[in-house]
Design brief:
With about 400 residues, the chain is of the alpha+beta class. It has 15 helices and 13 strands. It folds into two domains: about 200 residues, Cytochrome Bc1 Complex, Chain A, domain 1, CATH 3.30.830; about 180 residues, Cytochrome Bc1 Complex, Chain A, domain 1. A six-stranded mixed sheet has the order 1-2-8-3-7-6, sandwiched between helices. Strands 9-13-10-12-11 form a five-stranded mixed sheet, with helices on both faces. Helix 1 packs across helix 4 and helix 10 runs antiparallel to helix 11. The longest helix has 19 residues.
Length: about 400
């Protein structure tokens, strides 16, 4: 597989293309650094509102005509506003590249942002925010991340009730003009298109796109502590967050393999020790997460009030036991699991476009699958055990959501 080639256009837009001559289709991922971390104070949720409002018409078309224009070209598309950025993704036949980019140019440069659609967009966002009450694990982790980060990285990507209610069409139009632009944005393409053709098409459609690149604050974290969240329920949600190494660190894949040992399948430590042997939980897992400039390992367990104390103790003990080392068999199983996941992801042009854009955002360069596989293969038992002994997972931020008054004070 050819490695993606990149070029920065005169307006600051970064274009990356991974050519797949055998592929009749193209997958696109446009990453705009417009997320909750840069929402204006008092307008938390602005990025979320803007992403929904964009599709209510553009280039002289109303919302229905815009949707039909995409459908006429056979475009499968999606978009989302997140903590750090907004993404616009699409898949289409390679022959439609120029026409598809022209439609996206209308959305980005000539959006209608109609006043009569604004309240509908706000109500959808408010419902999304309210849905947290029906998703206890998500509610718990949302509160835990807010407790971990003193910087805006602890914000809920959906926004806040106060921010969504305070938003006005005028304020959001001004925010769109300030944050939506070419500088700092990344357009990744994977499929049957060359860099030369893509660059010509992008310059013809998005070459006059200007603005963007708002300053992003650096992540700032608090001291680890415990958060108790009262919620009348028959279940208790437990969450842990441990500092970890970020992408680009020499031991990044060492840490990823350690996470696989913990939670890489039904034979992994957390599932076996916490659920299968002791029957403490109905769900348990650990996964690597993070933001640009700060990464962490999160762990989750869902249990009952009666089992909460033991669950938390065993969950922490299993994670901290990594410092005592992993076996060669565990490491090999983790390698197979991680490589399988990566290979399956990279087989899809859609997933590849997403990976390219994310690599450029986080690292400023694109990694090949061969580079990643080599980094995983280089981790042997001696290396991972040396790393885990020197970098134990200890002293996490902790969140407990449930009937706190029924849970012993030691939690």
């Amino acid at each position: 597989m050819a490695l993606a080639r990149t070029v920065t256009l005169s307006n600051g837009l970064i274009l990356a293309v991974e050519e797949q001559p055998w592929n009749p289709g193209v997958a696109m991922q446009l990453l705009l650094p417009v997320g909750a971390v840069t929402d204006p104070e008092g307008l938390e949720g602005a990025a979320n509102l803007l992403e929904g409002w964009l599709w209510k018409g553009a280039g002289g078309r109303d919302a229905r005509a815009l949707a039909e224009a995409f459908d006429d070209l056979g475009v499968r598309r999606g978009s989302a506003a997140g903590l750090e950025y907004t993404t616009l993704g699409a898949s289409f036949l390679a022959g439609q590249l120029e026409k598809v980019l022209a439609l996206y140019a209308d959305v980005l440069m000539r959006p209608a942002l109609p006043e009569d659609a604004f309240e509908t967009v706000r109500q959808v966002a408010l419902q999304e925010l309210a849905s947290l009450e029906d998703q206890p694990p998500k509610k718990m982790f949302t509160a835990l991340r807010r407790a971990v980060f003193e910087s805006p990285h602890g914000r809920n990507p959906s926004g806040s009730l106060e921010g969504l209610q305070a938003a006005t069409p005028e304020a959001l139009r001004a925010d769109f003009a300030r944050r939506y632009g070419a500088r700092g944005s990344i357009l990744a393409l994977a499929g049957g298109v060359s860099l030369e053709r893509a660059q010509a098409a992008v310059e013809a459609t998005l070459g006059l796109w200007q603005g963007g690149e708002v300053t992003v604050p650096a992540p700032v974290v608090s001291q680890p502590h415990t958060l108790r969240l009262e919620q009348h329920s028959a279940q208790v949600q437990i969450g842990l967050i441990y500092p970890d190494v970020s992408i680009g660190h020499p031991e990044f894949y060492t840490a990823r393999l350690a996470a696989q040992v913990l939670s890489g399948g039904m034979g992994a430590r957390l599932f076996v020790e916490v659920r299968e042997k002791r029957g403490l939980v109905y769900s348990v897992y650990a996964s690597p997460n993070g933001v640009k400039g700060y990464s962490y390992l999160s762990a989750y367990a869902g249990t009952t009030p009666e089992r909460a104390e033991e669950t938390l103790r065993v969950l922490r003990a299993e994670i901290e036991r990594l410092a005592q080392g992993v076996s060669a068999e565990e490491l090999e199983r983790a390698k197979v699991g991680l490589r399988t996941m990566l290979v399956m992801q990279e087989e899809s042009a859609r997933s590849r476009a997403v990976s390219i854009a994310r690599d450029l955002y986080l690292l400023g360069r694109v990694r090949s699958l061969e580079e990643i596989e080599a980094a995983i293969a280089a981790v042997d038992p001696e290396r991972i055990n040396r790393y885990l002994a020197k970098n134990p997972y200890r002293d996490p931020w902790t969140a407990i959501l449930g009937p706190v008054d029924q849970i012993v004070a030691s939690l």
